[in-house]
């Protein structure tokens, strides 16, 4: 399940690029702001990813709706957008966040 949560985090960052207009208009993706998504990207990047997420990333992830993010876990956009799915799946654990009970 932790792996699925990480994948969904990567997907949300990827989808931010696709829905940038909504986020810029004050909307968020699964209760994460554009700033939160941006803060997490260095930890899940396919190019020189940082070993540990920033405090800003973890704070944003703690506010996020992880169940909502699960709905994006199977997206093929992640690698295309420079997001390493394996690193994304590790993000909640690195932020000491429990994964959601269900992640279909």
UniProtKB/TrEMBL annotation:
GO molecular function: fatty acid binding
A family per Pfam: LTP_2
Keyword Transcription regulation on entry: no
InterPro entries cross-referenced by the UniProt entry: Bifunc_inhib/LTP/seed_store (IPR016140), DIR1-like (IPR039265), NsLTP-like (IPR044741)
UniProt keyword list: Signal
Signal peptide: 1-18
Record-annotated Bifunctional inhibitor/plant lipid transfer protein/seed storage helical domain positions: 30-103
GO BP field: systemic acquired resistance
Protein name (record): Bifunctional inhibitor/plant lipid transfer protein/seed storage helical domain-containing protein
């Amino acid at each position: 399940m932790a792996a699925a949560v990480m994948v969904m985090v990567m997907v949300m960052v990827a989808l931010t690029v696709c829905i940038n207009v909504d986020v810029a208009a004050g909307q968020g993706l699964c209760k994460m702001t554009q700033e939160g998504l941006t803060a997490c990207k260095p930890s899940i990047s396919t190019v020189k990813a940082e070993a540990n997420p920033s405090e800003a990333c973890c704070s944003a992830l703690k506010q996020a709706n992880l169940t909502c993010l699960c709905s994006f876990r199977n997206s093929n956009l992640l690698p295309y957008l420079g997001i390493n799915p394996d690193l994304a799946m590790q993000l909640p654990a690195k932020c000491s966040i429990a994964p959601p009970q269900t992640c279909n």
